[in-house]
Amino acid sequence: MRHLAIDVGPFRFVARMEEAAAPKTCAAFLELLPFSNQVIHSRWSGEAVWVPLGEFDTGLGFENHTSHPSRGDILLYPGGLSETEILFAYGSSCFASKMGQLAGNHFLSVVEGAEQLHEMGRTVLWKGAQWIRFTDLGER
Known about the structure:
By secondary structure, this protein is mostly beta strands. The protein contains two helices and eleven strands; from the N terminus they run ββαββββββββαβ. The N and C termini lie close together (6 Å). This is Cyclophilin-like superfamily protein. InterPro entries: DUF3830.
């Protein structure tokens, strides 16, 4: 199984790609690596941080999509009702925007570093935007 390293400010996570459930999303995201941007705290989705991607066209539809990510799940919303974005749940979350409830493609699951999720979320909430970087760790 392929894994990615995810650095958020001073925090490091390892996530498993959900290639069986979201093969197109995983393949499209791998093409973007290494990927860096800023992550900010969600406005409507509860305990989650997000990377706004504006009008970025992923060319994707929905696969393995959910509105209720679990702690440590990472979703890619391919755009449509709201802007394209990445949502990283660190606790209880219901994915939404000012347009209402959304569903995103669950393509990554944190498998290492989960004990840091809450502190990462609090850091983004109280200290503001943090740099996020995704890098390929290959097969593990």
